[in-house]
Design goal:
The chain is of the alpha+beta class. Helices cover about 55% and strands about 15% of the residues. It has helices at about 5-25, 30-55, 70-75, 125-135, 140-160, 240-245, 245-310, 315-350, 365-370, 405-415, 420-440, 490-555, 565-600; strands at about 120-125, 165-175, 185-195, 205-215, 220-235, 360, 445-455, 475-485, 600-605, 610. The chain has a six-stranded antiparallel β-sheet with strand order 2-3-4-5-7-8, with helices on one face. The protein has a two-stranded parallel ribbon with strand order 1-6. Strands 9-10 form a two-stranded antiparallel sheet.
């Protein structure tokens, strides 16, 4: 190898090495690798923020297992589907040029412990319904993806302040026939650049470029060129300072916090909605049972009336009345049954399950709830003594539940724990920062620029020149001070004024939320007290109605009561039982809504309710 060639190879060694490393770093990463690295970055950000906000982090992923209950029901119960997408994205046929042939890939890890038996309905408890909703609900999944998207946006903003490495290369072959002799040549070029933006506004850029040109005719001469550039830009007035330059990064950091807060708030609202819908279905089922019992009783009464009429002990009018009431009872029973089916379908839809799936709810949940509230039921006082003075007594605090706290305590608790209130407070601070940024844009711009250029590049016309080299004593150095006077700032003036308006708007939003919280807390406390009183009243009403039905039935058998009296007694019993069920559910829902509205209610990573209890709470009531 000639000395000249060795020298050129020495010049090329380090640039080629840098370019090779850059190409290896980027070229060897697969499409799946990019997806996985994005997931890792977003999940790491969410985990860090959760630890900062709550002291601990729960697992967070937007990947849903393939064996969610919805899919299993569609398959096992042979339900109709419209196409491949009905069973999930992993069931789709990959289209042409699909980047990852094995993604999405189903993983069987739903962990809901729900067993499907052929021909049997799936029975869900309330706890299972909460878990199923967190795994199957499309709305719940969309809320999780909003958190994930905010984390990806933050990762991108962080990248703006990292080191940016770029590499390029090119080879060209040319032939010049404009002269008497054709001139052929080859040009090889490559460059490597590095950029860095600091959070104070300073920007640094450096690049290294190499050229190798060679003539394939006219003596086959060649020449090597190498250039290096470095520059630094420092804003001194407008656009200077961390609070201005890093504002997009600051906002992205806070947006992740807001997204996490809003998702936690949504989980509580979603869980309470599931509980309410679950209880409404059970209430509808209870009304079906109550109407069925009345229907059966009226069928018996109609047949008994027919027998009495045949024996001459009653009139045909009484028989017709009994038959008419039997028909009305059948109509009510059918309406109640269809209403139950409709509410059950709506509940399945809320969970993200197919409405036509064979699913039932555990009816024992309502029985357990009724037993639980027996301890707070107070027997209504007997005021039948006509000689006693009548007094109107309001709802007392006697036997009040643990959540029926003082109003001021509940409001202060909500102000301390409500995550949406923290978001609203953060929005006010965001608006204040926006005012600062917009005001900065109104000022003059003064920028200091420093630049250094070393070496020489080569083209085919310079193939006969000596090889270039980087020499600091032959470089070109520049320093520039640029000023932009604030003579035209109409757009900036508009933006500044609007930022002040936005600040006032965010303050009003906060004030409105505070008032809404107070209003909601006061209403929920009243609802709890009213439901507790209704429990006492309706418990007593059921006892009285049951006693009335028994006595009226005995009088009717003895001929001392009319059929109308018996029918009215049975209608009163039906109404009392339905009202008692409603009171039980109303009190339970008031408890859950109060915990939601004060921030006491917690939802774990599986979607289960973690309710307030006096034993394990640090809340001082």
């Amino acid at each position: 190898m000639s000395r000249v060639l060795k020298k050129r190879m020495g010049y090329l060694y380090f640039p080629i090495l840098f370019l090779s490393l850059a190409m290896i770093q980027t070229g060897c990463r697969t499409i799946a690798g990019y997806r996985i690295s994005a997931d890792e970055a977003a999940e790491s950000i969410i985990k860090d923020k959760q630890e900062q906000l709550f002291g601990s982090a729960e697992g967070f992923t937007i990947e849903r297992p393939s064996d969610i209950l919805r899919r299993r029901l569609l398959i096992e119960q042979d339900l109709p589907v419209s196409g491949d997408a009905s069973l999930g994205s992993d069931n789709l046929e990959p289209i042409d040029h699909w980047p990852e042939q094995d993604y999405p890939k189903g993983e069987n890890s739903s962990g809901d412990d729900i067993v499907l038996e052929s021909g049997e309905p799936v029975k869900l408890s309330l706890i299972q319904a909460l878990q199923v909703g967190a795994m199957n609900s499309p709305e719940y999944q969309s809320k999780k993806e909003e958190v994930f998207r905010s984390a990806l946006s933050l990762d991108l903003e962080r990248d703006e302040f990292g080191f940016t490495l770029r590499g390029e290369g090119a080879t060209s072959l040319s032939a010049d026939k404009s002269g008497q002799e054709t001139v052929k040549g080859m040009e090889h070029s490559g460059s490597l650049s590095l950029e860095k933006t600091l959070k104070n506004g300073a920007k640094f850029a450096a690049s290294l470029a190499v050229d190798l040109v060679s003539l394939l005719t006219q003596g086959k001469t060649s020449s090597f060129g190498i250039t290096g550039d470095a520059s630094i830009t420092i804003p001194l007035l407008r656009g200077a300072g961390r609070h201005i330059v890093a504002e997009p990064l600051t906002q992205a950091e806070r947006n992740v916090v807001y997204a996490i807060y809003e998702f936690e708030r949504y989980k509580k609202t979603f869980a309470v909605n599931i509980a309410r819908s679950y209880m409404n279905v059970l209430q509808q089922l209870d009304q079906v049972d109550n109407n069925a019992e009345v229907y059966k009783n009226l069928m018996v009464s109609a047949r008994r009336t027919r027998a009495l009429a045949d024996a001459g002990r009653t009139t045909e009018i009484q028989v017709d009345q009994a038959v008419q009431n039997e028909l009305n009872a059948r109509s009510r029973w059918i309406r109640a049954t269809e209403s139950y089916k409709s509410s059950l379908d709506s509940f399945k839809n809320l969970l993200g399950l197919p409405p036509d799936a064979n699913v039932e709810l555990e009816g024992s949940e309502l029985d357990d709830l009724t037993e639980r509230f027996e301890e707070i039921v107070i027997d209504a006082e007997d005021t039948s003594d006509s000689g006693s003075l009548l007094a109107l007594v309001g709802i007392s605090k006697e036997n009040a539940g643990p959540l029926e706290m003082e109003e001021i305590t509940a409001i202060e608790l909500a102000f301390d724990k409500r995550l949406d209130l923290r978001v609203s407070e953060g929005r006010v601070y965001d608006s204040q920062r926006s005012v600062v940024v917009r005001a900065d844009a109104l000022g003059a711009e003064l920028t200091l620029l420093g630049q250094a250029n070393l070496g020489q590049s080569r083209s085919l016309g310079q193939a006969d020149m000596e090889d270039a080299g980087i020499r600091s004593d032959e470089g070109v150095y520049k320093a520039l001070l640029n000023i932009d006077l604030p003579l035209e700032r109409t757009a900036e003036r508009k933006a500044y004024r609007e930022s002040l308006i936005d600040l006032e708007s965010s303050v009003r939003d906060l004030q409105s939320l505070e008032d809404d919280i107070k209003l909601t807390i006061r209403d929920t406390l009243r609802n709890m007290s009213e439901a507790r009183e209704a429990l006492s009243i309706q418990t007593r009403a059921v006892e009285v109605a049951e006693k009335r039905v028994k006595s009226t039935d005995m009088f009717f058998e003895a001929g001392r009561a009319q059929l109308r009296d018996l029918l009215e007694a049975q209608e009163a019993l039906l109404s009392a039982r339905n009202s008692l069920t409603s009171a039980v559910i109303d009190y339970r829902m008031a408890e859950l809504e109060f915990q939601r509205d004060t921030g006491l209610l917690q939802i774990d990573e599986k979607g289960f309710l973690v309710e307030y209890s006096e034993e394990n709470s640090d809340v001082k009531l």
